[in-house]
What we know:
28% of the residues lie in helices and 29% in strands.
Amino acid sequence: MIRLILIVSIVVGMLYSADEKLEISGDIVNGLRVVDYESIESGNLTFYRGDYLVINHEHSDTITLKIDELKISKQYPAPVKEKSYVKLKSVGAFQYSFGEVKGTINIVEYTQAQYKAINAAEANEVIKNLDPVILDVRTQFEFDRGYLKNTQLIPLQVLQKEYIKLSEHKDKPILIYCASGNRSTVAARILIDHGFKNIFNMRYGINEWQRNGFEVLK
């Protein structure tokens, strides 16, 4: 009975989640949130928690993005062999500077009627009761170190091109996970944008799954 109540509450929550009509800055490209230099100059930006932010800065001069409250300091263009993105992990309004430009970055949670963020224990119940498609969006290297049973691997970097592999499951529950819940949030948005209707995101990833002692295969 408790298990049934939990599943019903999760599904009902998905049906009645607020669909916030926010204007999100930039575009998702290969799993990254890419923002043009001109948008940064506007001084007021909005992103989703979990976004991997990249500034498309093609000028020869180096400019540093600073978000002190998030302990972010990133040069653009990014130095050779350094990752070009910064992770936006926390919800809130944060002051930033980009060279001479100063403004506010608003980081919000993703909400959609088709989407539900759940913890590891809830994910375990979803697997037992709803028989979802389980999607891992980490890298092959991470996957080889441990994964959930019956998981399909499509790394976030290629999901925009390879989501078609899941097309027959557009109406079926899909449980997405990564390491800690950032990439899976981005992946959920990609699938919903392509018409998928029943997405569960394991909010704290396989890390929490393992801490709870649930089965991991290698």
